Amino acid sequence: MAYTIKKIADIAGVSVRTLHHYHQVGLVEPDDASPAGYRLYTETDLERLQQVLFFRELGFSLTEIKSILDSPDYDRSDALRSHGQLLREKRRRLDELLILIDKALESTERNQSMGKDEMFEGFDETKLEEYRKEVREKYDPKIVAESEKRTGSYSKEDWQAVKDEASEITERIASTMELGAADPKTQAAVGQFYKHINDRFYTCTPEVFRGLGEMYVQDQRFTAFYEQIKPGLARFMLEAMRIYADSIA
User: Looking at the DSSP assignment, which residues form a beta bridge with residue 4?
Assistant: First the structure.
């Protein structure tokens, strides 16, 4: 079924002007046109527009959204799961702010002062920004392009070697858990992991490396993978990778 721009504006709750702009910047381009030359949007266009509005709600720029949606690694199901994580975190933060408003109102009406720490509970956006950073890094076009360029020529034997190397390094990190994340032996093993990523896949900055560690805890698929190797390893990886990233930043 095809929809006119006016119909889409009504359905999505956005202005016609906004849809024109999305078309001009190549974000949502109608697939069809009527005999009279009017833009017609398809169901696929609607799905893409929905993703754009999700990302906009979560604070992404139009440039970032276009890079994500046009990435060869883009997957709608994964994106929806990420939206869910972000929106749940945003809802949690808004709930805390509503509680804070009630406390502030009560203090004001009673002519009492709030504690300095209590005054700013709920304003911390760290967790929400961690999720945003994960999505940005996952679909960073430069990282994706570099990784594809490097791995595009890998043979079956090459991939097995990469897998074996990664497994050996992970086991080495797991074996240091009793020593602590900051122990020199742990940090040496994490350094090998950092080098492995840079040598085999893409240029990994300290910031990206730190983001990877956060993803190992936030993404249940990664968490399950590391927990199978050793219970608590995902969280340990996060702590160790943060320390290492800070040391080379």
Answer: 40
Given this model, what pLDDT does residue 175 score?
95
> Residue for token digits 């203090």?
107
The CATH number fitting domain 141-248, selected from 1.10.260.40, 3.40.47.10, 1.10.490.50, 1.10.3080.10 = 1.10.490.50
What is the torsion angle, in degrees rounded to the nearest 10, for the CA atoms of residue 103, residue 107, residue 112 and residue 116?
A: 40
Show the tokens assigned to 204: 């990994």
pLDDT at 60: 73
Q: Do 170 and 197 contact (CB within 8 A), yes or no?
A: no
Q: Is 1.10.1660.10 the CATH number for 3-57?
A: yes
Angle between helix 233-248 and helix 206-218 axes, rounded to 10 deg: 170
From the list 143, 130, 142, 138, the residue with the least C-alpha distance to 59 is: 130
For 3-23, give the secondary structure using H, E and C.
EEHHHHHHHHCCCHHHHHHHH
Report CA 182 to chain centroid distance, whole Å. Answer: 26
- Alpha-carbon span 33 to 39, nearest angstrom: 5
pLDDT of residue 94: 72
- Give me the average pLDDT of each 10-residue run along the chain (249 residues): 86 88 86 74 88 80 76 70 71 74 75 62 56 62 69 82 91 95 95 92 85 81 86 93 89
All structural domains of the chain with their residue ranges: 3-57, 76-130, 141-248
pLDDT at 132: 60
56 vs 147: CA distance, rounded Å: 27
pLDDT for the residue 165: 92
